[in-house]
Amino acid sequence: MRRRWHAGPAAGGWKASALALGCWGLAQPVLAQPGAALPIEMQAIPAGHFVMGSCLPVVGLRRNVAQANGCRTSDVHAHEDEGPRRQVSVPAFQLGRTPVTLGQFRQYVSAAGRDDLLTPDFLSSNAYGDNAPVVWVSWQDAQDFIVWLNQTQGGGWRLPSEAEWEYACRAGGQYSHCGGSDLSALGWYDANSGGQQQAVAQKLPNAFGLYDMSGNVWEWVQDCWVDSYQGAPTDGSAWLAGNCPKDRRSLRGGSWGGSASAARAANRFENSAVMRSHYYGFRLARSLEP
User: Fold this and answer.
1) How far is residue 213's CA from residue 219's CA, in Å, rounded to a whole number?
2) Mean pLDDT of 258-283
3) How far is CA 19 from CA 30, 135, 202, in A?
4) Do residues 130 and 103 make contact, with C-beta atoms less than 8 angstroms apart?
5) CA-based angle 105:9:8, to the nearest 5?
6) Fewer CB atoms inside 10 Å of the end CB: C or N, the chain?
7) How many angstroms separate the Cα of 229 from the Cα of each of 60, 84, 87, 139, 266?
8) Which pLDDT tens digit goes with each residue over 120-166?
9) Which of 137, 220, 170 is nearest to 46 (CA)?
10) Which residues is 271 bridged to in the sheet?
11) For 7-29, how does the pLDDT look when each residue is reduced to its tens digit (9 = 90+)?
12) In this entry, which stretches build a coiled coil (predicted)?
């Protein structure tokens, strides 16, 4: 039912990030070195609870039902696959402060001997510098990168779940986008991107110190695609039911080529696990040691 195809560190940004982390009492970022160059900067995300999803616009008697379910307001851009809203508990974990960059991915390609990934489509889609998010990577490509990272830099590396992603995006707020309601200050989308992905961490971070959660590139998450949250886990884990037999996986965040609506905190998208696109990238998560 895939409606809506939306194709889609500045000094000030880093300063704003430090202030945001201080307000939350969060630990400073952890540098994980997958080799000698281009460290992966991970941010500690505290455990917590949040309300996941959107409230569909309703009128008349349906409004009374919606309000009884906690929907005091609705999102005019909401889609049915963003509901029903529910309370989710998320354990502490780490999340990349930015999407994986081209420079980081090139290091993997070189170290793992994955020159097969350097296709003409990959090269033409990644012509914007080492600090831009890597694109033209499928969900499966991201998994291969993670296998290599776990083999070379210790365990626990993975993609975030949808619940973890939205929890980290919202960072304690209920804004329309990840960190606020003014997307132009937070991320890159069709109105300001110039028709290409942009270097990471140029816009403002959210309260958890995360950049580019809204816009720039769609980010693969671990979950199988399911077009409703009915019966979804409430413990923050990935939902590994639904359309995984059809290799459908979820993406979050919108992209440089998509609308502001596509970059909303609650918006969801999906595609085949082997699909590559110049709109698709990924962000790393890491489980904490028990």
Assistant:
1) 8
2) 96
3) 17, 30, 16
4) yes
5) 60
6) C
7) 24, 6, 11, 21, 12
8) 999 999 999 999 999 999 999 999 999 999 999 889 999 999 999 99
9) 170
10) 249
11) 333 333 333 443 444 434 454 44
12) none
Q: Residue 208 in contact with residue 188, Cβ under 8 Å?
A: no
Rounded Cα–Cα distance for residues 179 and 170 (Å): 6
Spell out the domain ranges in the chain. 11-52+93-286
User: Is there a contact between 252 and 279 (Cβ–Cβ < 8 Å)?
Assistant: no
Residues in the chain: 290
> What is the model's pTM?
0.83
Question: Within 10 A of 61 (CB to CB), how many other CB atoms are there?
Answer: 8
Report yes or no: 214 and 183 within 8 Å, Cβ to Cβ: yes
Find out whether 243 and 253 touch, Cβ atoms under 8 Å.
no
Evaluated on CA atoms 200, 201, 207, 210, the torsion sign reads positive
Measured CA to CA, the distance from residue 150 to residue 67 in angstroms comes to 45
Q: Which two tokens stand for residue 193?
A: 């991107």
- Three-state SS at 141: helix
Whether the pLDDT of residue 1 is over 90: the answer is no
What is the token pair recorded at 128? Answer: 């914007």
The better pLDDT of the pair 157, 82 is held by: 157
- Give DSSP secondary structure letters for 146-207: HHHHHHHS-S-EEPPPHHHHHHHHHTT---SBTTBS-HHHH---TTTS-SS---TT-S---T
Assign domain 11-52+93-286 to its CATH architecture.
Alpha-Beta Complex (3.90)
Q: Give start and end residues of each alpha helix (H) in the chain.
A: 11-24, 61-68, 102-112, 120-125, 139-152, 162-170, 183-186
Q: Which amino acid is at 96?
A: G
Residue 218's Cβ-count burial label (10 Å; 0-12, 13-18, 19+) is buried
Q: How far apart are CA 216 and CA 254, in angstroms?
A: 7
